[in-house]
Amino acid sequence: MFPEVTVKCCVQLITTPLVHTFNLSFLTGYFPDIPKIAKIQPIFKKGNEQDMKNHRPISILSVFSEVLEKLTFNKLKSFVEKYSILTDAQHGFRGGRSTETACQSFTESILEALDNHLNAVGIFLDRSKAYDVLNHQILLDKLEIYGVRRVLKSRFKSYLSNLIQFVEITKIGNNNTLHRYSS
């Protein structure tokens, strides 16, 4: 992992090779393996601190990975907008929309139904850790159904394979010494 400070200090030296690498990645559909190494740090949420279920795993990726992911996101977003793939009811991961706008839209739908003397029904699902159990092949098949094919689909497939992660737990000992555990 390269600290951001290190990258900022030598940005003039690495810009040309990075642009070349990123462009090559888009041309070939290959997402390099090195930026896919994630350091996982469990962050305490609430409850008993000794219970690992009360910690949220945070993936820390390299600065290079974040840039490459952002470029990929922008390309996919452009594709999705160009072909109007998302329904207007989709609020997550869209600019200018949030859980608040989703709630507002839902409330308006209920009020409209009641005004028209109709029944209003809501079904709510909370898939705990839904992304942890997401089948990558199903995701790739869905992308293809929506028109993501060839190089862009290969890029997603490459990104989702050979992922490497390690866990780092930082703990302050009794004598205020910092201990790091990696596995």
What's the overall geometry?
globular
How much is the average pLDDT? 86
Major beta sheet, specifics?
4 strands, mixed
Strand order within the widest sheet? 2-1-3-4
Number of helices: 6
Percent in helix: 40-55%
| Cα gyration radius (Å) | 21 Å
Structural class: alpha+beta
Helix-strand string: HHEEHHHHEE
Keywords:
single chain; about 180 residues; alpha+beta; 4-stranded mixed sheet; about 45% helix
List the helices and strands and how they pair.
Elements: H1 4-9, H2 11-28, E1 37-44, E2 55-60, H3 63-82, H4 99-115, H5 136-145, H6 150-160, E3 164-172, E4 178-182
Parallel strand pairs: 1-3
Antiparallel strand pairs: 1-2, 3-4
Task: Describe what this molecule looks like in 3D.
By secondary structure, the chain is α+β, with helices and mostly antiparallel strands. Helices cover 45% and strands 15% of the residues. The protein contains six helices and four strands. The chain has a four-stranded mixed β-sheet with strand order 2-1-3-4, with no helix packed on it. β3 (164-172) and β4 form a beta hairpin. α2 (11-28) packs across α6 (150-160). The longest helix has 20 residues, at 63-82.
